[in-house]
Amino acid sequence: MSFVVAIDGPGGSGKSTVARRVSELLGWPHLDTGAYYRAAALAVLRAGVDPDDPAAVAAEVGRHEYRQVDGRMLLDGEDVTREIRERHVTGVVSRIAAVPEVRRIMVDLQRRWVAENGGNAVVEGRDIGSVVFPDSPVKVHLTADPSTRAARRAAQMGIGPAEAEAELTARDRIDSTRDVAPLEVATGAEIVDTTHLGVDQVVSRVLDLVDQRRREISSAARDAPSS
Ligand code: DC
Predict the structure, then answer these.
(1) What is the mean pLDDT of each run of 10 residues along the chain (227 residues)?
(2) pTM, to two decimals
(3) Which among 12, 66, 127, 208 could disulfide-bond with 131, CB atoms 3.0 to 4.6 Å apart, if both were Cys?
């Protein structure tokens, strides 16, 4: 049986740090779905396609191959893990991720990745609990105050807090208002505000939820009449 721990939330909410740590502690693979959209955005930028032309974006994105292997993101076999974090990519990625055909391609790849990696995984993104794996037994939605998120992002990127806040606000607006799979709290998700929590506290909350759900699932299996 597949068991996906879905970790959603906006930039700077602590998603990646928490998802990586939970995956190490469970010994389950980790999938960063944002990296797919970033790789797609890089492909669009390299081709010189207008990010605001959805048909051209969809056609360009469909021409490439995207794979995530051992935490590295590969675009047509080239390791682009570092380049997809650069500011020019971050600046357009939300517009690329708003194109329905791009989402269809990426969601399909993400589902296949989990199936090929054994079915148990920690998956982070914006629409994991709502769209990609709506049946996940554990769904966590991380949030934090805008100023805390901006401070984290600024420290990560080596930029000023005002610039970080402007970038996050612009992406939040596009990610939360797009027509397909907007960033929202999935049904059944536990909201965890990380503003005043350390990484270890958030990680242990997620692990508690995993334990609880595994116990419930195994006791339901024990109680089910055998056929
Ligand atoms: O998590 P991140 O900052 O690397 O994500 C980059 C962008 O990709 C983000 O602005 C929105 C988009 N994204 C998405 O639309 N759906 C996901 N599941 C993950 C990311």
Answers:
(1) 94 94 98 98 98 98 98 98 95 96 98 97 97 97 94 90 92 89 91 96 97 92 78
(2) 0.95
(3) 127
Q: Say yes or no: CB of residue 153 within 6 Å of ligand 1.
A: no
Three state DSSP letters for 84-126: HHCHHHHHHHHHHHCCHHHHHHHHHHHHHHHHHCCCEEEEEEC
User: What CATH superfamily classification does 1-29+119-227 receive?
Assistant: P-loop containing nucleotide triphosphate hydrolases (3.40.50.300)
Query: Using a 6 Å cutoff on CB, does residue 149 contact ligand 1?
Result: no
Distance 212 CA to ligand 1 centre (A): 29
pLDDT of residue 227: 57
pLDDT score recorded for residue 142: 97
Smallest CA separation from ligand 1 atom 8, residue? 34
Q: The dihedral of CA 66, 100, 113, 41: what is its sign?
A: positive
Is 35-117 in CATH node 3.40.50.2000?
Answer: no
Q: Is 97 in the pocket of ligand 1 (CB under 6 A)?
A: yes
Q: Is 38 in the pocket of ligand 1 (CB under 6 A)?
A: yes
